[in-house]
Specification:
Elements lengths: L5 E5 L7 H7 L5 E5 L3 H10 L4 E4 L13 E2 L1 H6 L4 E4 L5 E4 L1 H10 L10 E5 L5 H10 L3 E6 L2 H11 L2 E4 L3 H4 L5 E4 L18 E4 L8 H7 L2 E3 L1 H17 L5 H10 L7 E5 L6 H12 L2 E4 H9 L3 H8 L1 H14 L6 E4 L8 H10 L1 E6 L2 H5 L15 H19 L2 E4 L5 H15 L3
Parallel strand pairs: 1-2, 1-3, 2-17, 4-6, 7-8, 7-10, 8-9, 10-11, 11-12, 13-15, 13-16, 14-15, 16-17
Antiparallel strand pairs: 3-5, 5-6
Helix pairs in contact: 1-10, 4-5, 4-9, 9-10, 11-18, 13-14, 14-15, 15-17
């Protein structure tokens, strides 16, 4: 197991499959980092002491100004999708999307021999595809509706361009075709392709080319191939280790996450889980549940009394049974006690049964205005220093149980609730 703290960021990012790939490779403390701007993403990255960060839209260009060094591929693409520290502690940016395309196309080397590739689309993914093709020694032609974008790509990369209105007349001239258009967009009928073609569709699912490929016999690569093959060099950047792509392919094939209307909020005491959770419930109609309150009712005593009389181990076991009791509930928001993530079983239950969001803020923010009289672990001579020690010791636990982290520093409770709602509603229907 690799114990480094790693994440993927973007806006939105809750849909990202990167944690599935990296978790399968042994990076258990890899999660999604929700952010509204690249500045917020990098700030959270540094505050949490992350060792690596994958970057997706719309931050791939914006993060560059925060980096000390760019690889040649990142320089060419003028975009970064992988941030990591060098051996001399420099913050480096790479573009493994390029390597992802290269590795994908190399799965069928026979189609590369004619040295011709057609790229369809001129959006954010296109530069990486062009560079990959040129790195493989291919002559690249680009076609798209946006004439200005085509001209820019021609000037920037020296590619040929073609009028997309006539694509039906020239698409068969290219043994290698990469479609970099939004899902469902069709600019030619797949049936005109032959067994002499290889097509890579940047989309993960519902590709218009997948089913016809089975009938016609052309080779088809989906966005999942690209996704896995860009994750392999990213993993190597993060860990310095090699990984077989087959491990990631298998994880992707077996992955299922069906949002069932169960949201959990984890995070340090005082971060706002309870008050923001109640406001979120008001926004959505979800039923709000506070784990500490419910356990106090169940046990007939305060948390501090449970700790004093029965010990922390007993309390954590009660938390585990409580989590299990909620595993089939729907449309609930659970505010978790600050230490719930300390046990492996609780983290597993949170990962498997909830959309578990780690609310993060610096310890000073969390302690501001917090009544520590019912906080048994802070009953000491220097509660602030104790809180810092506790938080740092729990960071890997929060990370290991989190679906995603949300930085709530300097937000009031209403703003936290709205930020949670905004992030979740972008991906899941609530």
């Amino acid at each position: 197991m690799n114990t480094k703290l790693l994440a993927v960021t973007g806006n939105p990012v809750l849909h990202s499959l990167s944690p599935v790939l990296m978790n399968s490779a042994g990076c258990e403390n890899y999660f999604r980092l929700c952010a509204e701007t690249a500045d917020e993403a990098i700030r959270t990255f540094k505050q949490l002491g992350l060792q690596g960060l994958n970057v997706t839209a719309p931050f791939k260009k914006d993060v560059i100004k925060y980096l000390d060094f760019l690889t040649e591929n990142a320089k060419k693409a003028e975009a970064v999708n992988c941030i990591f520290y060098s051996s001399d502690k420099k913050l480096c940016g790479d573009n493994t999307d390029i390597k992802g395309v290269e590795l994908s196309l190399k799965l069928y080397p026979q189609f590369l021999q004619q040295k011709k590739m057609l790229v369809i689309g001129s959006g954010g993914a296109t530069p990486a595809v062009i560079i990959a093709g040129q790195n493989l020694g291919l002559n690249v032609t680009v076609t798209a509706r946006n004439i200005n974008a085509l001209e820019n790509l021609k000037q920037r990369f020296g590619v040929l361009t073609a009028d997309i209105k006539n694509i039906g007349t020239f698409v068969n001239d290219f043994p290698v075709i990469v479609q970099a258009l939004p899902s469902g967009v069709k600019v030619f009928e797949p049936e005109i392709l032959t067994s002499e073609h290889l097509i890579l569709d940047a989309n993960y699912k519902n590709s218009i080319f997948e089913i016809p490929a089975q009938k016609i016999g052309y080779k088809f690569l989906s966005g999942k191939n690209w996704l896995v093959n860009q994750a392999v060099p990213a993993f190597e950047n993060f860990t310095g280790e090699k990984i077989s792509p087959e491990i990631m392919y298998e994880a992707l094939k077996n992955y299922q996450f069906n949002f069932q209307g169960r949201i959990a909020l984890t995070g340090f005491m005082g971060v706002g889980k309870t008050t923001a959770g109640k406001k979120f419930a008001e926004l959505t109609g979800y039923r709000f549940i506070d784990s500490d309150d419910e356990i106090e009712k169940q046990e007939g005593m305060k948390i501090s009394q449970i700790f004093a009389e029965k010990g922390e181990e007993y309390f954590r076991k009660v938390e585990t049974e409580f989590l299990k009791s909620l595993s089939k509930e729907k449309n609930i928001l659970l505010s978790c006690g600050g230490g719930m993530v300390k046990t492996a079983e609780n983290r597993k239950l949170l990962r498997e049964n909830f959309l578990n969001l780690w609310l993060y803020a610096p310890v000073e923010y969390c302690l501001d205005g917090l009544d520590i009289s019912n906080r048994p672990l802070l009953q000491c001579e220097n509660p602030v220093e104790k809180a810092r020690e506790m938080f740092l010791s729990r960071v890997p636990f929060y990370a290991g149980g989190a679906y995603a982290v949300i930085n709530v520093e300097n937000l009031n409770r209403q703003q936290i609730a709205e930020k949670i709602y905004e992030q979740v509603s972008k991906t899941f229907k609530i």
